[in-house]
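ERR on first pass: missing label on line 2. Operator R.T. fixed the label and resubmitted. Corrected input:
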Amino acid sequence: MDLQSLIAVARGERPADLVIRGGHVVNVLTGEVYPADVAIVDDRIAAVGAGYKGLAVIDATGRLVMPGFLDGHVHVESSMCTPSQFAQAVVPHGTTSVIIDAHEIANVCGVPGLAFMLDDAKGLPLDVYLMLPSCVPASPFESAKTILDSKDLGPLLAEPQVLGMGEMMNFPGVLQQDPEVMAKLGFANLLVDGHAPDLTGKDLNAYVAAGISSDHECRTVEEAREKLRLGVHVMIREGSVARNLVDLLGAVSPISQERCMFVTDDRHADDLVTHGHIDHAVRKAIAHGMDPVLAVKLATINCARYFQLERVGAIAPGWQADVVIADGFERLRIETVLKRGRVVAREGRPLFEASGEAPATVRDTVRIAPLTDDAFRVPGPAGLSAVRARVIGVVPDQCWSHSLERDLPVQDGDLQPDPAQDIAKIAVVERHHATGNVGVGFVEGFGIQSGAIASTVAHDAHNLVVMGTNDRDMRAAVEALVASQGGLCAVKDGQVVELLPLPIGGIMSDQPMARVAELVEALQARTRAALGIRVEHPYMTLAFLALSVIPELKLTDRGYVDVHRFEVVPVLA
Amino acid sequence: MDLQSLIAVARGERPADLVIRGGHVVNVLTGEVYPADVAIVDDRIAAVGAGYKGLAVIDATGRLVMPGFLDGHVHVESSMCTPSQFAQAVVPHGTTSVIIDAHEIANVCGVPGLAFMLDDAKGLPLDVYLMLPSCVPASPFESAKTILDSKDLGPLLAEPQVLGMGEMMNFPGVLQQDPEVMAKLGFANLLVDGHAPDLTGKDLNAYVAAGISSDHECRTVEEAREKLRLGVHVMIREGSVARNLVDLLGAVSPISQERCMFVTDDRHADDLVTHGHIDHAVRKAIAHGMDPVLAVKLATINCARYFQLERVGAIAPGWQADVVIADGFERLRIETVLKRGRVVAREGRPLFEASGEAPATVRDTVRIAPLTDDAFRVPGPAGLSAVRARVIGVVPDQCWSHSLERDLPVQDGDLQPDPAQDIAKIAVVERHHATGNVGVGFVEGFGIQSGAIASTVAHDAHNLVVMGTNDRDMRAAVEALVASQGGLCAVKDGQVVELLPLPIGGIMSDQPMARVAELVEALQARTRAALGIRVEHPYMTLAFLALSVIPELKLTDRGYVDVHRFEVVPVLA
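pass 2 clean. output:
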């Protein structure tokens, strides 16, 4: 865009490429809504006012004209879709920029995984910016494909789409001044996202003093207020599982609002397709009493400012022409979306194609050593018929768990699952380097009656997690996912009864998001029915049981991890 | 500052270098005031909270603890003091950072003048950032020492203290897409300050679309609102002459406040010494009803954010330890000032030294061709005793003027000043390259009875301006300023009766600011008395009569300039 053209159009010396006429502009710079036309040249807004002529005109009479939405923190992989399929789904909902932290694919594929996410996003009418995954693996107890250290990450900071360092989940490492964490934080002028659930007082001061600028883990007004006071940008999360928006609205004060924004973190395909993306957060905030322009502000310029995206997130001269036209604040139906001055979605439909095939670097990622017959055995002490053991207590549809102790039956020298107590067996099989590592434990609360389910989505290292009532079905489930090179599956009586392939890194489909949403929905329902599982989303719940940084008791390929003690613990209590 | 130390102190693992204890923190991030201690390590704030131990302690019981103030747009030269003397005066008033646009010295000394301003500021407990003068000379009608074009300015953008391009006064050049103006605006990711009095509608849209981000020329709420709507940061000016603060408070809405800040633009030594600097603006805003924390916010973080000064302008962990301790919001007496963690002023006194001598590059700058006897003659048409002529109408103490027409007497073939009409003669003598250029005209309204006054402060080219009742005294005044190599002087009956030397560029003293304030005050009073002048500040008023970009009629060394028509016009009407 040359300045001369912008100036000439703004002065009315020549027509704009496009004029959005007759609408009410939602001005997030002043908090106002008022009638004004918007004149656009190429990818920029040239002027906001009356009396502009355009080579093309969009009639926005009776409509709201607002800036395109930004999601400041999202793991695209949680939708199980590729960035380009993600874009097809969210752009029609008004999202025009996302800041992704692709730590899921990074755990599976390392730097080439990050490159895939950016490559796949190229040419899309969605700006995809990357915060570099700061914690791959998430903990020393998880076997990711690779370790991304400061030497790997440093050179990537020069990439134009890279905005900084992603969520620093390793807050113990920050507080203990771990040298490698210090090296990651020490890059000059670095923007670093935070992840600090429940951190408070002096430890929170220390975490913030280290240069970490945001947090998306607040669950209460008090937690958000303490962080806002210390200068932390609070990312108000409205994901599929973690839904903090309503609880946090009370923390958004007239001044502190400047450092608040909406994010989704993890949002599943069905929620994105059915309820929307950042538009959903805006709608919900308004429904709960937030000033509508303020709600739009938290979805636009507040995010852009935090990430120092210049002239993005408002309707003003010289700003990037990312524009959403909606019916009104109540329904907030997104009718038309412009990205860099081009109409890219209308009436909920994308007007662009998804990218092509995923490259070899992110395919064929499930590599396990042949399973021995006793891979899932848990030997018990000789001579006892029952023994006290650690058991993971499931919290349905949440990423945390309880650490329980239960008496488990011993048979043929091995600890056994116990249907009477709703206790199944669970295993995590290393799948990146075929090391043969298998961690085995027990889990209570799925309600599973028979068979097994398995997943190569298993946060954050995405090893293969399998859970079932018997070793044979568990083994068949593992073999099915090796054959499909990733996915989710259910096995009963040795037969695969359900299988959703996730060929990209074992965590993403290559299908459109609406299709993925249908498939996942059907998969969960049929799996519940076939195996008698009570938990609403068994695969997602299972996927988080391997995440060794969220309390209390988790399982990795090295065995149980007591997250509070931050150490590996044996099965026997 | 190493991260480890910050973290260790914030966690309470070891004592801070300094703790400010018992005060109430003014938190511009949330709009709150509450009791909290502030722990400092080296140049950074490590923590804000309770229970910190320090190697040193400042007792702030009953006091407010707030961030150091920033002035987002100031011409230091207007104080007639050097940056280091300026710092000695303003740091005790709580100013810890200034963004200067040194276009006055740039007109006199070019790039070496800018280098002097930055060099002189080195080592001071005041961060001095530079916006590059975008309009040297201010117009094609002014003969500055040099022309600073995009090729001169471009390389300077890489300097760490340089934040962008200073006020783009040449708005006609922007609107007409002048190639050199486009080149100046075209540097990548450039922050450009604006100067757009009365610009509105499509022309304002065009000026903003060109990438200009601020304006300090608003005089009414309506003007400020229109600019804020378009994304312009409004610099609320409270200078010595232009005092817009009270008039603009109504434009500061709950959302638009984010893009408002206080600046001084031009503030004289006596005002700085007597009333203060940015603290004065805060005090005045509070007195006129602004929320006190909001007033501090406009003086601190709002400015820092606009200029992308990271972690400056608030009291929070990891932020630069620029801290002001004051008695309360009512008097806002600044008791202690910390810059980067060091106490640098107490009870109104600086605890640091000014810099040394100014270098040769900014001395001996008054170079004029020998004046001929008829240098100030204005030949009239033959045979008439009076003739219609253009006359500058003085607006006392303002930078604008009226364009008048008056009948002037003709004697010995030349137009004459006319005491009966309060009309004196005025001349501008080129003084940078001894070209011999002299522009001569007439001026009404000083009330001068006899003698002449002269000044090498003459915006913006700072040629030598002289005004008087007769050519002889005018010439003596010019010669006095050549002898002193710059300054302000008054001559009566051929004798110098007053002289204030300004040896640095002919526009700055090398004396402390309090001394300069006294000298200027005395000079103006004695000059008024000696020559019978009615205008309160005759030298300042005179200095603006050469500024060819502020309406209506001005005089440069090329002659009269009709500013509205933007062309040179003859004396005869």
